[in-house]
Amino acid sequence: MIAEAFRLDGKNALVTGSRRGLGAAIAIALAEAGANVVCHGYGEDSHDISGRVRSRGRRSIYIAGNVADPAICERLVAGTVEELGSIDILVNNAGVIRRSPALEYSGEDWDEVIAANLTAVFRLSQMAAREMVKQEQGSKIVNIASVLSFQGGVFVPAYAASKGGVAQLTKALANEWAGKGINVNAIAPGYMRTDNTAALRGDATRNRQILDRIPAGRWGDPDDLAGPVVFLCSDASRYVHGHILCVDGGWLGR
After folding, report:
1. CA atoms lying within 13 Å on the CB side of residue 103
2. Mean pLDDT for each consecutive 10-residue tract of the chain (254 residues)?
3. Contact 213, 249 (CB under 8 A)
4. Quick one: which of 1, 129, 152, 214 has the most CB atoms within 10 Å?
5. Is 2-248 assigned to CATH 2.60.40.10?
6. Known catalytic residues?
7. Smallest Cα–Cα separation from 16: which of 3, 34, 30?
8. 68 and 120 in contact (C-beta within 8 Å)?
9. pTM here?
């Protein structure tokens, strides 16, 4: 039955940046579809996302740390395998954004954004894929890109560069790993209602400019990623490789 193709029962997932916002919604969606989930955040789990996963009847632990640190990436993948027995799904959601005009953009901000948003995505994907190949069964990697994977944005040069890189990395890894039973795809969210966009939503002029361009007429909510991420992590997408799925209320088609 088609409904069964979307189920994730018995699958073990790692979702980075899942303490709150988009990552938390993704973790809960995977749990509700049947997956056990290792959750992660930069700080301590004050929102108890792992508790919310466990309340769905799934296994979960929380691991804190900065994914820009290679040791944290290793700990996340190894911890998932140790705690759950395997890593079948990796969702690379963790990321940062630093806003400043390009003429004034600091080297420190550039390095921080690229390290967290792009280098860590490669590092985690590589580490997870080494485990996935050994498991010899269908595995999924989903990267969180952005509409700025396609557009340049304003005052976010490192973020735009990193997300453009995520889109291309997704395709490159899909080319290599599709034949190894690993689907690598990405989701490109549009303007979402998260902490990262609080300043934009708080600016009446910018908020209206953004809403006027979105055909759906509203900011996206984290829950709007639930269906797309379950699809890309399930057998329903077994012949989808290297795709960037835009979830943007129609923004890019305007």
Report:
1. 0
2. 94 97 98 98 86 98 97 98 98 96 98 98 98 92 98 96 98 98 98 91 94 97 98 98 98 95
3. no
4. 129
5. no
6. 159
7. 30
8. yes
9. 0.97
